[in-house]
Structure formats: structure tokens, C-alpha cells
Amino acid sequence: MNQTDESATKFEGQLKEEPLIGWPMDHDAGAGLLNPYAQTKVGSDTIFAWLARYQNAKAEGRDAVNGTIGALLEDDGNLAINAVVDEAIRQAPPVEIAAYAPLTGLPAFLDLAKTLALGERRSELEAMGIAITATASAGGSGALYLAATNFANRGDHVLLRDRHWGPYKGFLAGCDLKARTYPLLPKAGSLYPFVDIEGFKGELAEMCLHQDKVMMWLNDPAHNPTGLSLTPDGRMAMLEAVMESASVNENVGHTLLIDAAYHLYAEEPHGWAETIHDAMSNGWPWPENLLITFALSLSKSHTMYGLRTGAIVSIHPDQAVTDRIATVMGVTGRQTWSAAPRVSQYTVSELHASDEGGAAWSNERDRLQSLLTERRNALNAACEALNVPLNPTHDGFFAWLDHEDPGRIAEACAEQDVYLVPLTGGVRIGLCAIPLAQVKRVAEALAHALN
Ligand SMILES: Cc1ncc(COP(=O)(O)O)c(C=O)c1O
Predict the structure, then answer these.
(1) Does position 12 have pLDDT exceeding 50, yes or no?
(2) Which ligand 1 atom sits nearest the alpha carbon of residue 297?
(3) What is the CATH number of the domain that holds 298?
């Protein structure tokens, strides 16, 4: 087994979508013990199945390409690790490893989380009277759960784009919520090329007719599964639409959640803080029924996937509101996972507390980001040369080909020993896993598959 084969085997366990223990299973087993909602839970095998096909191809000695995995791999197939973070964790004092963290998070970590969410605009926003609260969570997933369970009424809909991270539906369903969607991309010729603003406004208006709370989840920048990032104009158009809707529907609570799972690998990591800052500088009144909240994940940015560390960071002009949210989030965390892991909170706070530590982390982050940039540039160039209609893709771990028959495309690629993942509405290309030297083969396989 060469290096890549071993890595692929090791990385099975990193997949969020990995099959649950015992899958495949008899879905009727335990029906007398499991409640009806529990009985709806079935393991999702798509990504695992396609990874397994890649591994089989390698085991048969074929020169296969692995575009299935959702973790950043070095070009040699090993998991990419931010060495500065790794070293810092290993130096943590025993008590920081063994002890509980405070229930809402270590104060230094909560302070850092606010800066990681808002970047350099944080202090200006605070000076403008914006109150910020942060609560530590079990990864970005924990932050999404905190939002789902607290900001929407049971039975209601949450607004998503039609292409979204698969587990969103599970977080929502667990809180008795449903999804409404609008198209990821607008029709050709739109003023905003990367957001269907009309579709968004239409769905939002409709939801306001039926709900007294509306929540929108937006994974931006560096969207999973497409790598799309909004432009400043697109962000402003969206924020304007949300602010307008909140002003017009003053009895409807509006929560805009920015899922920032990959933002620190994006060209504009703090674009949303910029846009909010610009809107406020232009004198926009912030409706009191509007909350903006960030679901922060350190899994990718600090290569801490397994240490389950993230935060929910909420901003609002009234500190009484953010204080109340802090209590609610802390209590929810307590009742769900107790406290989030301490050693990771301690380590990153210490690391970013010094200019040296912050710079060392960001040098490593830049190195990892450049792996993604080079692979993405190569894929975009090759797809353009071969007329493969790849979706617009800018940042982050993935690229995407929209297609009405994603299974057929993925099968045709697999026949050429290029393994991608067919998902609803298209094929996910795990740029994060594909060595630069193999990227061109992905474009060629797609071109062949489409023909
Ligand atoms: C879009 C998106 N949001 C949130 C997360 C949550 O990440 P984690 O819970 O590992 O921090 C992920 C992880 O894959 C993701 O892809």
C-alpha cells in the first residue's frame, strides 16, 4: 500500500457523512425502542461509497484520483495539518487538557472568536454601538445546532440556498424545522452574478407572511459544496434585502446566520463584517428585530477537526439582547454537550494572543490556502479549455458541476478512475483532496463524461 492508499483509509473516519456504526442495517430493527423521529434516521453512505470505490481502484493498482474526501490533504495524500497549532497543543499544561472549560467558553477564547468572526472591523463595529456575544460550541456543527434550536419556532421553515451542506437538513429536522430554498445562482445577466437576490427576496417575503420568526442560513464565503463566494455588491444586496424585510415586517424576528466554516481560507475572510460596517457607516438604521450571527468552526482553519471547537458569535445594537442570547446559548450548550473542549480553546487563545503566534499560524494557514488556490486555478483553467461548464468557484475546499444527472457523470468519471461525489443537483469535486498534478485529469474526465 503506498502513502495515498494508507491516507485514504485513515481518512474514512474524518468524513462527517461516514456511515454510522452497523450501517447498512435493518431499518425496522428497534422500532419498538426508538421514537418515530429516531426511526427516520438512516446512515448516509454516498461519500463513503465513493471513497470506497476510489480505494478499491487503488488496491487494484489503478492510477486513481481521489476527489471524494472533505478534508484538506497535502499533495502527497496526507492530512494537511497546521504545524503551529499542532505544536502549541502538545505544549499545553496538563490542567488545560484535563479540566472542564467554563460552560460558555474560556473568556480569552470568546474574545478571540469575536475577532475571528469580524476581523479588523470588530472594534469599529463596537465603537458604533454594536454589541457582540460569543459562546463556545462543539465545532461549527454545535453552533449551527445552537442557532437551529433557539432562533426558530418549532415546525417553521429556515431559508437555505438549494445547494447546501447535506447535514443542514438533519440539524433542522432534529429541531422540528424544515427547509425552504432559493436557487444558488441567478438567471444569466443578473446584476449580482453569485446570488439569486430575487429568489431570496421572494422566499423571505413569503416566509414573513406565515412565521413570526425567520432564519436564513448562508454558507459564505467559500461555500460547501461549490466554493462560491459572494462579491461585496452581492453581500450588500442581501443585507439590504434582510434589513428591508425586517423594517417592513417589524413583528417578525429576522436572524441571518453566516456559516463561516471555511472563511479563513477565503480571499475576503471578513467580507460580511466589511459589508455590515459599510451599511452602518452609510447611516443604515439597524432594525431591532434583526440579529446577525456567525457559526464559527476551527475545524478547518486551525486543522482541529477532531477537537470539536467552534463558537456562535451574535451581533445586535442592544446589549440587553446579546446578554440574553449569551445566557440562552450557554444553557443550551450545558444541556447538550456540557462544556466545549478546553485544550483547543486555551491553545488557540494563547497562540493568537501574541503577534508572533498569530503570524506563525497565518503563515501556515497561507501555505494550506495556497494548496487550494493552485488546485482551483488549475481546475478552472482546464475546465475552461475543455468547455466543462464548472460552476463559479472561488474559495475553500470544493468545486462543483451542476448537473441534472449527477450519478451518470460520477459513474462516467469513475470509469476513467476519477472519483467524485454525486450529490443532489450536481457533482462535488473535493479539490481539498486532489493533488495538483492530478487536477487536469479531473477536468478531462468531466469533459469526457459530459460528451
Ligand atoms: C458548510 C459547513 N458548515 C459547518 C461545518 C461544521 O464543521 P465542524 O462541526 O467540523 O466544525 C462544516 C464541516 O464540514 C461545513 O462543511
Answers:
(1) no
(2) 11
(3) 3.40.640.10
Continuous H helices in 249-305: 271-281
125, 264: one domain: yes
Could you tell me the CA-to-CA distances from 290 to 59, 68, 130, 392, 394 in Å, in that order?
54, 38, 12, 30, 29
Do 347 and 388 lie in one domain? The reply is no
Distance 303 CA to ligand 1 centre (A): 12
Beta bridge partner(s), residue 180: 159
| Residue 15 domain flag | no
219 lines ligand 1 (CB under 6 A): yes
- Our answer on whether the CB atom of 226 is closer than 6 Å to any ligand 1 atom is no
How many domains are contained in the chain?
2
Q: Which atom of ligand 1 is nearest to the CA of 397?
A: 16
Q: Which atom of ligand 1 is nearest to the CA of 141?
A: 9
Give yes or no: residues 247 and 343 share one domain.
Answer: yes
Cα-to-centroid distance, 261 and ligand 1 (Å): 5
CB-based burial label for 317 (10 Å; 0-12, 13-18, 19+): middle
310-316 and 290-297 beta bridge pairing: antiparallel
Q: What is the pLDDT of residues 115-151, one digit of tens each?
A: 999 999 999 999 999 999 999 999 999 999 999 999 9
Distance 47 CA to ligand 1 centre (A): 15
The pTM of this model reads 0.94
Q: How much is the average pLDDT of 91-115? A: 97
Nearest residue to 376 via CA among 176, 214, 228: 228
Round to whole Å and give the CA distance between 82 and 365. 7
The CATH number given to whatever domain includes residue 427 is 3.90.1150.10
345 and 369, same domain (yes or no): no
Query: Ligand 1 centre from 140 Cα, in Å?
Result: 5
Which structural domain range is residue 300 located in? 94-353
**How many angstroms is it from 317 CA to the middle of ligand 1?**
28
Shared domain for 183 and 329, answered yes or no, is yes
Tell me the per-residue pLDDT of 297-322, one tens digit each, with 9 for 90 and over: 999 999 999 999 999 999 999 999 99
For a pocket test of ligand 1, which of 163, 219, 259, 303 has the largest count of ligand atoms closer than 8 A to its C-beta?
259
Report yes or no on 86 lying in a domain: no
